[in-house]
Amino acid sequence: MGIRPRLMLLAALLLAAPATAQPLGGTPAGPPPAAEPELPATDLLVRFESPVLRFRWSLAPEAALEPALVTGMRAEALAERQKAMRQAEADAKSPPPGRPPYQTEWRERWQPAAETDLLLALSARQYSFTGGAHGNLVLRSVIWDRGAGRRISFAELFTDPAAAMAVLKPAFCKALDAERAARRQGQAAAGFSDCPNPAAYPIVPQGDGAIGMFRVLVPPYEAGPWSEGVYEIALDAAPLRNFLAPRYRPAFTNP
Protein backbone atom coordinates (compact mmCIF):
# COMPACT_ATOMS: atom_id res chain seq x y z
CA MET A 1 0.00 0.00 0.00
CA GLY A 2 1.40 3.41 -0.96
CA ILE A 3 1.80 6.38 1.40
CA ARG A 4 -1.26 8.23 0.11
CA PRO A 5 -3.70 5.32 0.63
CA ARG A 6 -2.27 4.79 4.11
CA LEU A 7 -2.85 8.45 5.04
CA MET A 8 -6.40 8.29 3.75
CA LEU A 9 -7.08 5.14 5.82
CA LEU A 10 -5.64 6.75 8.98
CA ALA A 11 -7.79 9.86 8.50
CA ALA A 12 -10.91 7.74 8.09
CA LEU A 13 -10.17 5.82 11.31
CA LEU A 14 -9.64 9.04 13.29
CA LEU A 15 -12.87 10.54 12.03
CA ALA A 16 -14.76 7.38 12.92
CA ALA A 17 -13.47 7.24 16.54
CA PRO A 18 -16.05 8.07 19.26
CA ALA A 19 -15.85 11.69 20.39
CA THR A 20 -15.97 10.71 24.08
CA ALA A 21 -13.30 8.03 23.93
CA GLN A 22 -10.34 10.13 25.08
CA PRO A 23 -10.76 13.86 25.83
CA LEU A 24 -7.90 16.29 26.27
CA GLY A 25 -5.63 15.42 29.17
CA GLY A 26 -5.93 11.66 28.68
CA THR A 27 -8.74 11.13 31.24
CA PRO A 28 -11.58 8.90 30.01
CA ALA A 29 -14.77 10.89 29.49
CA GLY A 30 -17.73 10.13 31.74
CA PRO A 31 -21.28 9.59 30.52
CA PRO A 32 -23.34 12.68 29.69
CA PRO A 33 -25.35 14.03 32.63
CA ALA A 34 -28.74 12.43 33.00
CA ALA A 35 -31.63 14.66 31.99
CA GLU A 36 -33.85 15.84 34.80
CA PRO A 37 -37.23 14.12 34.70
CA GLU A 38 -39.94 16.21 33.17
CA LEU A 39 -43.39 15.86 34.70
CA PRO A 40 -46.44 17.68 33.40
CA ALA A 41 -47.81 20.31 35.75
CA THR A 42 -51.07 18.39 35.92
CA ASP A 43 -49.28 15.64 37.87
CA LEU A 44 -48.85 18.14 40.69
CA LEU A 45 -52.55 19.05 40.81
CA VAL A 46 -55.82 17.30 41.57
CA ARG A 47 -58.94 19.40 41.17
CA PHE A 48 -62.52 18.21 41.29
CA GLU A 49 -65.89 19.88 41.73
CA SER A 50 -69.40 18.53 42.09
CA PRO A 51 -72.56 19.85 43.73
CA VAL A 52 -71.57 18.14 46.99
CA LEU A 53 -67.74 18.37 46.96
CA ARG A 54 -65.04 20.90 46.13
CA PHE A 55 -61.62 19.17 46.17
CA ARG A 56 -58.23 20.86 45.74
CA TRP A 57 -54.77 19.26 46.08
CA SER A 58 -51.41 20.60 44.95
CA LEU A 59 -47.79 19.54 45.29
CA ALA A 60 -44.80 21.91 45.33
CA PRO A 61 -42.83 22.08 42.03
CA GLU A 62 -39.69 21.04 43.94
CA ALA A 63 -41.15 17.53 44.12
CA ALA A 64 -41.20 17.22 40.31
CA LEU A 65 -37.58 16.00 40.31
CA GLU A 66 -38.71 12.96 42.32
CA PRO A 67 -41.22 11.07 40.13
CA ALA A 68 -41.63 8.23 42.62
CA LEU A 69 -42.57 10.71 45.34
CA VAL A 70 -45.06 12.46 43.05
CA THR A 71 -46.63 9.16 42.02
CA GLY A 72 -47.11 8.03 45.61
CA MET A 73 -48.47 11.34 46.90
CA ARG A 74 -50.78 11.80 43.94
CA ALA A 75 -52.18 8.31 44.48
CA GLU A 76 -52.88 9.22 48.10
CA ALA A 77 -54.66 12.39 46.98
CA LEU A 78 -56.87 10.47 44.54
CA ALA A 79 -57.76 8.02 47.30
CA GLU A 80 -58.65 10.96 49.57
CA ARG A 81 -60.86 12.36 46.82
CA GLN A 82 -62.77 9.09 46.51
CA LYS A 83 -63.20 8.91 50.27
CA ALA A 84 -64.35 12.54 50.48
CA MET A 85 -66.79 12.01 47.61
CA ARG A 86 -68.38 8.95 49.21
CA GLN A 87 -68.81 10.81 52.49
CA ALA A 88 -70.18 13.94 50.82
CA GLU A 89 -72.74 11.94 48.83
CA ALA A 90 -73.83 10.06 51.96
CA ASP A 91 -74.21 13.31 53.91
CA ALA A 92 -76.23 14.86 51.08
CA LYS A 93 -78.65 11.93 51.08
CA SER A 94 -79.15 11.95 54.86
CA PRO A 95 -78.55 15.49 56.18
CA PRO A 96 -79.04 16.16 59.88
CA PRO A 97 -82.43 17.67 60.74
CA GLY A 98 -82.56 21.41 60.18
CA ARG A 99 -79.19 21.66 58.41
CA PRO A 100 -79.36 23.35 55.00
CA PRO A 101 -77.57 21.75 52.04
CA TYR A 102 -73.88 22.59 51.77
CA GLN A 103 -70.87 21.73 49.63
CA THR A 104 -68.15 19.73 51.39
CA GLU A 105 -64.70 21.25 50.98
CA TRP A 106 -61.33 19.46 51.03
CA ARG A 107 -57.99 21.10 50.27
CA GLU A 108 -54.34 20.33 50.81
CA ARG A 109 -51.35 22.30 49.54
CA TRP A 110 -47.85 20.88 49.92
CA GLN A 111 -45.02 23.39 50.24
CA PRO A 112 -41.23 22.93 50.44
CA ALA A 113 -39.68 23.06 53.89
CA ALA A 114 -36.14 21.79 53.20
CA GLU A 115 -34.27 21.01 50.02
CA THR A 116 -30.74 19.58 49.93
CA ASP A 117 -28.90 17.20 47.61
CA LEU A 118 -29.88 14.31 49.88
CA LEU A 119 -33.21 15.26 51.46
CA LEU A 120 -36.42 16.94 50.40
CA ALA A 121 -38.95 17.86 53.09
CA LEU A 122 -42.49 19.09 52.50
CA SER A 123 -45.28 20.18 54.80
CA ALA A 124 -49.00 20.76 54.34
CA ARG A 125 -52.16 21.87 56.05
CA GLN A 126 -55.07 19.63 55.14
CA TYR A 127 -58.39 21.42 55.64
CA SER A 128 -61.83 19.90 55.30
CA PHE A 129 -65.29 21.24 56.04
CA THR A 130 -68.19 18.85 56.50
CA GLY A 131 -70.55 21.12 58.40
CA GLY A 132 -70.35 22.30 61.97
CA ALA A 133 -68.93 25.37 63.67
CA HIS A 134 -65.61 25.22 61.79
CA GLY A 135 -63.58 22.95 59.59
CA ASN A 136 -61.07 20.24 60.44
CA LEU A 137 -57.34 20.86 60.19
CA VAL A 138 -54.65 18.18 59.87
CA LEU A 139 -50.94 19.04 59.70
CA ARG A 140 -48.73 16.76 57.64
CA SER A 141 -45.10 16.40 56.61
CA VAL A 142 -43.03 14.22 54.29
CA ILE A 143 -39.27 13.63 54.36
CA TRP A 144 -37.87 12.10 51.15
CA ASP A 145 -34.45 10.46 50.92
CA ARG A 146 -33.42 11.36 47.37
CA GLY A 147 -30.56 8.86 47.22
CA ALA A 148 -32.63 5.92 48.44
CA GLY A 149 -35.76 7.05 46.62
CA ARG A 150 -38.08 6.56 49.58
CA ARG A 151 -39.87 8.33 52.39
CA ILE A 152 -38.29 8.26 55.80
CA SER A 153 -39.65 9.09 59.22
CA PHE A 154 -38.24 11.84 61.41
CA ALA A 155 -36.86 9.17 63.74
CA GLU A 156 -34.83 7.63 60.89
CA LEU A 157 -32.65 10.73 60.77
CA PHE A 158 -31.04 9.64 64.04
CA THR A 159 -29.03 6.75 65.37
CA ASP A 160 -30.76 7.12 68.74
CA PRO A 161 -34.20 8.73 68.22
CA ALA A 162 -35.10 8.56 71.93
CA ALA A 163 -31.96 10.46 72.92
CA ALA A 164 -32.60 13.03 70.20
CA MET A 165 -36.17 13.60 71.42
CA ALA A 166 -34.93 13.93 75.00
CA VAL A 167 -32.86 16.90 73.85
CA LEU A 168 -35.53 18.35 71.58
CA LYS A 169 -38.46 18.29 74.03
CA PRO A 170 -37.15 20.84 76.62
CA ALA A 171 -36.27 23.26 73.81
CA PHE A 172 -39.72 22.76 72.30
CA CYS A 173 -41.52 23.36 75.61
CA LYS A 174 -39.55 26.55 76.25
CA ALA A 175 -40.24 27.93 72.76
CA LEU A 176 -43.91 26.91 72.92
CA ASP A 177 -44.44 28.66 76.26
CA ALA A 178 -42.84 31.82 74.89
CA GLU A 179 -45.08 31.75 71.81
CA ARG A 180 -48.21 31.08 73.88
CA ALA A 181 -47.38 33.98 76.19
CA ALA A 182 -46.92 36.28 73.20
CA ARG A 183 -50.25 35.29 71.66
CA ARG A 184 -52.21 35.45 74.89
CA GLN A 185 -50.76 38.75 76.11
CA GLY A 186 -51.19 37.86 79.74
CA GLN A 187 -54.58 36.18 79.36
CA ALA A 188 -55.03 32.64 80.66
CA ALA A 189 -56.26 29.80 78.46
CA ALA A 190 -57.90 27.19 80.67
CA GLY A 191 -56.72 23.68 79.97
CA PHE A 192 -53.85 24.69 77.70
CA SER A 193 -50.87 25.22 79.97
CA ASP A 194 -49.12 21.84 79.81
CA CYS A 195 -46.46 21.05 77.25
CA PRO A 196 -47.55 18.33 74.83
CA ASN A 197 -45.13 15.71 73.58
CA PRO A 198 -43.54 17.00 70.33
CA ALA A 199 -43.08 13.42 69.10
CA ALA A 200 -46.87 13.25 68.65
CA TYR A 201 -46.79 15.84 65.87
CA PRO A 202 -45.13 16.25 62.47
CA ILE A 203 -41.55 17.50 62.79
CA VAL A 204 -40.20 18.79 59.51
CA PRO A 205 -36.60 19.78 58.64
CA GLN A 206 -36.13 23.31 57.36
CA GLY A 207 -33.39 24.81 55.18
CA ASP A 208 -32.27 25.54 51.65
CA GLY A 209 -29.10 23.72 50.61
CA ALA A 210 -28.49 22.66 54.20
CA ILE A 211 -30.85 21.97 57.11
CA GLY A 212 -30.43 24.21 60.12
CA MET A 213 -33.82 24.08 61.82
CA PHE A 214 -36.69 21.78 62.70
CA ARG A 215 -40.33 22.87 62.89
CA VAL A 216 -42.82 21.11 65.13
CA LEU A 217 -46.35 21.46 63.70
CA VAL A 218 -48.99 21.55 66.44
CA PRO A 219 -52.67 21.81 65.38
CA PRO A 220 -55.41 23.72 67.23
CA TYR A 221 -56.77 22.23 70.44
CA GLU A 222 -53.40 20.64 71.25
CA ALA A 223 -51.39 23.58 72.61
CA GLY A 224 -54.17 26.14 72.70
CA PRO A 225 -57.82 26.77 71.77
CA TRP A 226 -58.99 26.94 68.15
CA SER A 227 -58.78 30.72 68.20
CA GLU A 228 -55.01 30.58 68.74
CA GLY A 229 -54.54 28.64 65.52
CA VAL A 230 -51.60 26.44 64.56
CA TYR A 231 -48.37 26.52 66.51
CA GLU A 232 -45.32 26.08 64.29
CA ILE A 233 -42.39 25.96 66.70
CA ALA A 234 -38.98 26.43 65.08
CA LEU A 235 -36.00 24.82 66.83
CA ASP A 236 -32.27 24.91 66.15
CA ALA A 237 -31.09 21.58 64.72
CA ALA A 238 -27.51 21.96 66.02
CA PRO A 239 -28.12 20.38 69.48
CA LEU A 240 -29.29 17.20 67.74
CA ARG A 241 -26.37 16.92 65.33
CA ASN A 242 -24.48 14.37 67.46
CA PHE A 243 -27.47 12.03 67.19
CA LEU A 244 -27.76 12.22 63.39
CA ALA A 245 -27.20 9.05 61.40
CA PRO A 246 -23.92 9.31 59.43
CA ARG A 247 -25.84 9.12 56.15
CA TYR A 248 -27.75 12.32 56.89
CA ARG A 249 -25.11 14.49 58.55
CA PRO A 250 -23.97 16.04 55.24
CA ALA A 251 -27.49 17.42 54.74
CA PHE A 252 -27.22 19.57 57.88
CA THR A 253 -25.32 22.76 58.58
CA ASN A 254 -22.12 22.47 60.58
CA PRO A 255 -22.28 23.89 64.12
Structural class: alpha+beta
Oligomeric state of the chains present here: single chain
Report the mean per-residue pLDDT as an integer. 85
| Overall 3D form | flat
- Taking the alpha carbons of the first and last residues, their distance comes to 72 Å
> Number of helix segments?
3
Helix content: 25-40%
Low-pLDDT ranges: 1-35
Number of beta strands: 9
**SSE topology string:** HEEHEEEEHEEE
Largest sheet: 9 strands, mixed
Question: What would you report as the Rg, rounded to the nearest angstrom?
Answer: 27 Å
Strand content: 25-35%
Give the SSE map.
Layout: H1 3-16, E1 45-49, E2 53-58, H2 67-93, E3 104-115, E4 119-129, E5 136-145, E6 150-152, H3 161-184, E7 203-208, E8 213-218, E9 231-236
Parallel strand pairs: 2-3, 3-7
Antiparallel strand pairs: 1-2, 3-4, 4-5, 5-6, 7-8, 8-9
How would you describe this protein?
With 255 residues, the protein is of the alpha+beta class. 25% of the residues lie in helices and 25% in strands. It has helices at 3-16, 67-93, 161-184; strands at 45-49, 53-58, 104-115, 119-129, 136-145, 150-152, 203-208, 213-218, 231-236. Strands 1, 2, 3, 4, 5, 6, 7, 8 and 9 form a 9-stranded mixed β-sheet that branches. The longest helix is centred in the first third of the chain and has 27 residues, at 67-93. The model is unreliable at 1-35 (pLDDT under 50).
Short description:
With 255 residues, this protein is α+β, with helices and mostly antiparallel strands.
